[in-house]
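Hey, I'm writing a tutorial for new members on how sequence and structure tokens pair up, and I'd like a real worked example in the thread rather than a made-up one. If someone can provide the structure for the chain below, I'll link this post from the tutorial.
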Amino acid sequence: MRTARRQRYWMTGAATLALFPAGCIDESGGETEAISADEAPLVATGPVRGVGSGRCLDVKGRSTATGTAVQIYDCNGGENQSFTFTEAGEIKVYGGTRCVEAAGRGTTNGTRVVIGNCTGQPHQKWRTNADGSIVGQQSGLCMDVEGRRTTNSTPVQLYTCHGGTNQRWSLPAEEETDTAPPTPPSNLSASNVTCSSATLSWSASTDDSGVASYDIYHDGQFMTSVSGSTLSTSITVSPGVSWGVYVNAVDAAGNVSQASETLRLATPHCEVDEQAPTAPTNLTGSASGTSVTLRWSASTDNIAVAAYDVYRNGAKVGTVTGSGATPPATSFVDSGLTAATAYTYHVIARDAQNNASPASGTTSVTTGSACSSAICEVVQVATDNDLPWGLVSLPDGTILYSRRDADDIVHLNPSTGAKTSIGTVPNVAGTDGEGGLMGLAIAPTFTTDRWLYIMHTSPSDNRIVRIKVVGDGSAARLDTSTEQVLVSGIARNKYHNGGRLRWGPDGKLYASTGDAQNAGSAQDTSSLSGKILRIEPDGRVPSDNPFGNYVWSYGHRNPQGLAFDSEGRLWEQEFGNTVMDETNLIQKGGNYGWPNCEGTVSQGGSGCSTAGYIAPKRTYPTSEGSCSGIAIVNNVFYTACQRGTRMYRAVISGSSLTNVQQLLVGTYGRLRTVEPTLDGNLWLTTTNTGGTDSVPNNSNEKIFRVILGR
């Protein structure tokens, strides 16, 4: 249902003029008249017509550049003449990407009215009055057509309110605010499945104002949109894939439904292939400290080699994969081995239909007596049949980690491998995707206050709570009677829930939130979706946040990594859609461009060249990325990647990431979380099975301690 709002009506022409008797004329050319203010916010979108001129409020030259003048011009229905009045008092244009403001934050007569990046600052806040005037909340001055002129291109300025017709506007009709999303689409099915295409069909969603469109996704990646009257469409698929396909409904107000049930779509290969690749040849190995580098000559295949499996002492320890038309590499680095130890290796090639070659010849390599590598040793400390997601080190060197689909938190003693569930978090709900029990954090005051901070999906939203941990070690447990909900109302969906928590050196809690598959929300600073949030320990909004709410930065798609460097700067890791992932250095109030910009690739509007967008510090092809957690140790940056099955290492130099290395490529499969240990090393977790179904205890994951070298 809609949220009902009081209706307000705006009169134009003679009817409006009749309200204002003739008065004195001041130097701006307006008739003097007292203003009777109705300060309730107008919520509407449309053209704004000057009462005196009959012309429309217009952004000069249809430009989106910061500082472009606002003027009057013949009404033409252009996007530069469509303004949205928000409940926050902003006047937005160009689909909400720019706000009307007082130039230079001016508060004096004659200050020009221009557009700029939306920041929520007072010089961008306006009050609409019952007489049709628009008043700057900071200046108390009216939006005024200069000199009472009525010709095209006359500038709009701020001026003392006097009730003249050059200060009165015919505003868009206020409407009820539609905040209710459509129901999820149902009965999703596939037909005509080939190696390159499939036809999807579904039953219609319902909505009080009607469904405007349907968005089709696979595994969190947007594919296409169709109109709200369309209930079947053909999609392009890749041969031999297994995708989780689903549909979201969108109404005219931009509200996005929860996703349909996931349809598992397995496509055939375009031709039957029963011929295996030839065996790899010329396998050699060399040791550098406790790492071994293997190289071999490529196999051949009647179609293409898709991957090489690497075996150490008879057990598979890694896979090297190709990407599209790019064949897999013919080298592999095996890291974190025992010093002064001999290892024997062989390699097997596979094609896209998993036909396996004969084994290569073997090579034996003896590691060095000391570590000289980035990673000296990788020690498995635990396994779990659910997905370890959030992980924190406790002051005594033990750890807590969240099990995303099982809804509980486990205490782990890495020295002994002993594990104990300390309790189930109340009100956690999966999303049949990637929602559930996610990020964990403890404040520096944990030893005295015992608060554990948790981000999780509930049946209605994503939220941040805190619960006290009582007891220590294996006797620790969650005291759920102490639970406090600090932040709620963060939009949830099947994918794009964000979920990471990190304490800053300023004593504030930072949280990453996804766009909940509603890309437009990432640019809305009044929404908590697609953002980095900044929160006081007790859940209050910090007084110095840039937009007067929890939002610290915006324009994010699905950020899942947060870490601070030695200078107190916040770094963030973010999933892209189909082109590239990105690492960002976060600025207060910064706009990181989604959905118009993905990494450094323009996707809509004025794209990555849009004034005010902040470029990433590093990008990664999605096939080599899908990176989630990040950690910074001794000003060295690490990020754990899922689809890329690797960990990136980079040295932070100034504001750049330098000397980038790819570690553990294919060794442990998909990597989710990386966190610093108390002694300057790393915890690392895998996420290989059961990652997109919200089914508890159907995984086989590992937790490692990674001993770092140089």
